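Practice set, problem 2.
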Amino acid sequence: MQDNRHHPFRDSHQDREAATHIPDTPQTRAPSYALAFADEDFMCRPELRPVRLQLELLKPEMLMNEAGINSTIVLFGGARIPAPANKDSARTQTLADLSKYYDEARRFSQMMTERSLKSGGTEDVIVTGGGPGVMEAGNRGALDAGGQSIGLNIVLPHEQAPNEYVTPDLCFNFHYFAIRKMHFLMRASAVCVFPGGFGTLDEMFEALTLIQTGRMAQVPFLLFGQSFWEKIINWNALSDAGTISAEDLKLFRFVETAEEAVEALDNWDGKGEKRGLIPGR
């Protein structure tokens, strides 16, 4: 956001530009002479990690505030799940079968975005990890509805570009997984998890743990694909062993279709009381 306040000092943009036109001397070529905030090598030093963490928290927060994003619906899910039209290219038959959830994620995002647009398009905005698979489907559904959506990408060796359906001005890139996870949940009014791998499991259990321990409000939490989730996680065994309580199994609900998900959100006990991470904790 441009600072329109009148003050007598030169701003940082002016000095950064002026510093590119200084005489070329041994002194001006020395790394020590570079403006600290414009010195990439300096900003990447280990001692500056706290500053980089702060910047990754601030930049998306400020830009989402400026865009008026009040609340989000979080979509987690596998990057390897193909669109049904491409399921023949899936590396396993299971992935090909899971392609139906690409369509469910797309339809669910479209339905929720259409609702959001009726109230200005700043509530329940779809947010994904910005990559392929289920993430792409989520952003694509929002675009189908004519709305905006958020992509929270992270620099990975094998996945660099965000999917083409993310709203460009709401497309962010992260270095720190921890800060990215905070942005997923800070505005969350609901969390929807589709079948996926390590990343999806990590995000799901992180969010469930925050809710279980009271560090996050009990927002609606939906797992798409009951047979998938019950095959890879023995939820009842955790409860029977006493490592979680029976009440913890009520923190989430299984759904299969976009319509079931919308109905579950509409009928969730306590929906709308509070959202996201608990302030000040």
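Problem 2, part (b): a different protein.
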Amino acid sequence: MKTASHRRFSAAASVLLAATLSGAGGHPEAARGSAVDVGPFALADDPTEVGWRLLAKLNYRTGEKTEELAALDGKLVKIPGFTVPLEDFASSATEFLLVPYVGACIHTPPPPPNQLVYIEMDKGKRAKMDGWNPVWVEGVLSIEMTESVYGHVGFTITGQRVYPYES
């Protein structure tokens, strides 16, 4: 009996340790760095967290991308950032830009294309626009150059969810 309890505890502790070490639950590097691999504990529908450092690995002049970045093309991802509506004074939108810092593109030169994500919400869904507070955007990532009113954009996401950022 003591052995079975010990095994259940060890299995539970292993799962918790693996999830913690792999970044599940909002490891700070996930927002700043590369994609987080949550291993066998992730559900098939769970989006992969993608940070701005990984997106910056797209060479927007040549179109070259790292293997890690190329592996995310067409996959469900989750990216933190700030919304920039493509319509003036929009409180909600079906299309917008996601940027890495507050105020990007607003009366300043825009970030480079590998630091801009064009979001088109899926099936006419609308997302609340609050450029002052960070959000998570979940959707299917495409690595392709797109033109916006702010210039060239290196990524497109078909948005499924937009919700407040919590680490």
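Answer key, part (b): The first strand starts at residue 48 and ends at 49. Residues 2-22 form the longest helix (21 residues).
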